[in-house]
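Issue: ligand-bound run for flavin-adenine dinucleotide - logging full I/O for the record.

Environment: standard queue, default settings, no custom constraints.

Inputs:
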Amino acid sequence: MTTSAAIIGGGIGGLATANYLIQHGWTVDVFERAAALPDTGTALGMWPEALAALDSIGAGDAVRAIGSQQRRGAIRRVDGSTIANINSHRGTAVLISRPPLLRTLAEGLPDGVVKFSSPIATIDDLAGYDVIIGADGVNSRVRTVVAGQQVDPEYLGVSALVGWAPGETDTVAETWGEQRIFGISPRDGNRTNWFAAYREPVDADIPAHPAAFLRSTFGHWHADVRDILARFDEESIIHYRIKQMPKLDSYIRGNVALIGDAAHAMTPNLGRGACETLVDAATLGAALVEHGVEGGLHKYDRKRRKHTQRLVTGARIMNRLALSTRYTGLRDGLLRAAVQIA
Ligand SMILES: Cc1cc2nc3c(=O)[nH]c(=O)nc-3n(C[C@H](O)[C@H](O)[C@H](O)COP(=O)(O)OP(=O)(O)OC[C@H]3O[C@@H](n4cnc5c(N)ncnc54)[C@H](O)[C@@H]3O)c2cc1C
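Outputs:
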């Protein structure tokens, strides 16, 4: 008899888990509320652990072929001078934007596995499945079932605008000003990715004219930033409010598990959210295949919960450091020391 899983959410975590389980003989349905895969989204840095998780479902080589390899980066000041150079000792990261990553994951699945336009309001109708996996992102509904109560992510008073500009770059740099960061990185398809993060009051509205807001806020920064502001694609701009998850006591309850942002949404400052989501998918898949449903779910929770919760804390510390209001000289010194120790 085959084992079956219902996965709520056809994002990075849901599609990766579906690949793993189907490759090991499971029957899987993925319920995705959107009508199709997205065609916009920011660049994601895939670290070696994430690439290993992608290899475990046969998608690693495709991601390496599409993405661009990155080992070095820099943190700069508003005037363009360097605060710190970062040479990764953890191996080469591959930068890939969300749409081709999702396409690659979806291409590994048989037709009909992903049921688009299928928002799940309650898991009560999914009782026939052996396992239910909540891969439904930062505002997860499945989380209420696992936590036994509603647990909302915390909004940190930080927003990010992300998008792309036509043309290539080999720059990988973040520029840190007071309460603001501007990031530039290469992207597949002859484009350059950028993001702008900024502190704001928690009840602030989304900027009505993001392009004008960006030019007035960052227009006096160094030449590489001004160059992006002069040529970005205004239609590509997406706004995110940055949130993080409080610690959950468990990522599992009964036959239900949470993965990815539903379990451990973190600020993007360590560039690890999607990577950890992929590691969740491979770990949960392997645990279920090797240990069955009950043993596998417990093994997954033991292997992943504490580690990912530590990263949520680490990403928050980095977020505070990067968006400091005062003592930026001290901040820059601490960062240089941290980079040297790392
Ligand atoms: C600005 C920014 C930059 C980032 N940069 C990086 C980076 O460089 N590196 C990195 O590793 N991570 C990065 N991240 C984090 C990364 O994007 C997330 O951690 C990752 O997307 C989480 O994947 P997921 O599958 O858990 O959730 P998601 O990707 O959010 O997918 C959830 C899916 O569930 C669907 N869904 C939700 N509710 C329902 C429902 N009720 N019924 C059916 N479907 C539903 C949604 O439509 C969506 O498709 C960044 C995030 C942000 C905001």
